[in-house]
Design a protein that fits this description.
By secondary structure, the chain is of the alpha/beta class. Helices cover about 30% and strands about 15% of the residues. A hairpin with an 8-residue loop joins strand 6 and strand 7.
C-alpha cells in the first residue's frame, strides 16, 4: 500500500483539487445541504453508532467526540443535526468533501459517503489508524478516555487536532499533558517529512486561519519525544482546515486557501498510513 500511494505523488502535485471536488456537489447544492440536516436530540440521548459504518478494512474518516467544557475559550462550535457539541464543527460536509478529494488524487480508496464518530475510550477506535478532532479548545477527558487515548497513540494511532486559536491553546495543552505527561509539543517547520509525504509543501508561511487571518503554527508530539521517530499527533494551531474543506464548493473561502487545506489533510493521511 505504501508504494502504491507514493507512486502517484508526482502526478498529483499538479492537480487542481477544486476540480475533483466539483464532481461531488455544486455550490448552490452545497449551501442548501448545509441548512437541511435533520435535528437530533441532545448528546446524552444520541446513539452515535447509528451514524457509523461497520469496519471492512477500507479507510474511513474518524471524528472524535467528547463532552465539551462548560466554559470554553471562545470560538465557534459545531452543527451536528442542529445541536452544538463543539467536536462536530463542519460535520459532515468537511469529511465528505475531503474523502472525495483523497479518493481522486490517491490510490487509498477511502469510503466517500460515510464517516465514523467515536469516543477516545471506544475499543472500535483501534481499528482505525487516523482520527480527527475539531475544537480541542473545548475538549475534556474522563480517566477512561485518557487511558484509551494514550493506548491508541502508543499502539500506532495518529490524531489530527484542528480548529483552535488564541486561548484555546491552554485547554488543549492541559488535556494533552494528562494523556502524555512526559511528552512535549514541538513546533514543526516545513522540513518535517509530513509536509512532503505526498504534496511537496516547501513553506508553511502561506497558512493562515480562513477567517481570523492569523498565521498558522503546527505542533507535533513524537514517539518517545524523539523527533527522529514517528509523529503521533499534529495540531493545526491558529488554523481550521475543516472549515476550508466544508465550504470549498461555495466560493466563501479563497480557492488558494482551500487547496492548501486539502494538501495538508492528504499529507497527514499519507504520512500516518506509511509510518
Amino acid at each position: 500500500m505504501r508504494g502504491r500511494i507514493a507512486s502517484m505523488a508526482c502526478a498529483a502535485r499538479s492537480v487542481l483539487l477544486v476540480a475533483a471536488l466539483a464532481l461531488t456537489v455544486s455550490p448552490l447544492e452545497g449551501q442548501r445541504r448545509s441548512r437541511s440536516f435533520p435535528r437530533r436530540p441532545p448528546p446524552e440521548n444520541v446513539n452515535f453508532e447509528e451514524f457509523n459504518v461497520p469496519y471492512d478494512g477500507r479507510f474511513a474518516f474518524v471524528r472524535l467526540r467528547f463532552t465539551p467544557t462548560a466554559i470554553g475559550w471562545g470560538g465557534g462550535g459545531g452543527f451536528f443535526g442542529g445541536v452544538n457539541y463543539q467536536w462536530d464543527h463542519d460535520y459532515p460536509r468537511a469529511e465528505r468533501h475531503f474523502t472525495r478529494i483523497l479518493s481522486e488524487v490517491t490510490t487509498l480508496s477511502p469510503l466517500t459517503n460515510a464517516s465514523n464518530i467515536l469516543a477516545l475510550d471506544d475499543p472500535e477506535l483501534f481499528k482505525y489508524p487516523v482520527a480527527y478532532m475539531s475544537e480541542p479548545g473545548y475538549w475534556t477527558l474522563t480517566e477512561a478516555e485518557v487511558e484509551g487515548f494514550r493506548d491508541y497513540l502508543h499502539k500506532g494511532g495518529f490524531v489530527i487536532f484542528d480548529d483552535f486559536v488564541g486561548g484555546h491553546w491552554f485547554n488543549f495543552e492541559e488535556q494533552m499533558r494528562r494523556v502524555l505527561p512526559n511528552h512535549r509539543l514541538v513546533r514543526l517547520d516545513a522540513s518535517h517529512p509530513i509536509f512532503h509525504s505526498f504534496f511537496e509543501i516547501e513553506s508553511l508561511d502561506q497558512y493562515i486561519h480562513p477567517y481570523r487571518f492569523v498565521p498558522s503554527v503546527f505542533y507535533g508530539v513524537f514517539e518517545d519525544n524523539d523527533p527522529n521517530k514517528r509523529l503521533m499527533v499534529i495540531a493545526n494551531y491558529n488554523n481550521d482546515i475543516g472549515e476550508s474543506w466544508e465550504w470549498s464548493d461555495t466560493g466563501w473561502i479563497p480557492i488558494d486557501l482551500t487547496n492548501e487545506a486539502y494538501k495538508l489533510g492528504i499529507n497527514y493521511i499519507v504520512y500516518a498510513m506509511t509510518h
